[in-house]
Amino acid sequence: SLLMDKANTCATVLSRFKNMKSPKNKLFNRRNFIITSGLAAASCCSYARYIEPSLLSVTQKTVRLPKLPKSLDGLVVAQLTDIHYKPEEQQELMQEVVRVVNAAKPDIIALTGDYIEGRPKVIDPLMDTLSGLQAKHGIYATMGNHDGWSASPGRFRQGFRKAGIEFLHNDGSCIQIKGEHFFIVGTDSCWSGKVDAPACYRGHKNEPVLALVHEPDVFDFLSAHFPVSLQLSGHTHGGQCRVPLVGYAPVKVKYGKNYIYGSYAKGASQLFVSRGLGTVGAKVRFACSPEVALLTLRSAAS
Question: CB-based burial of residue 121 (10 Å sphere; 0-12 exposed, 13-18 middle, 19+ buried)?
Answer without folding.
Answer: exposed
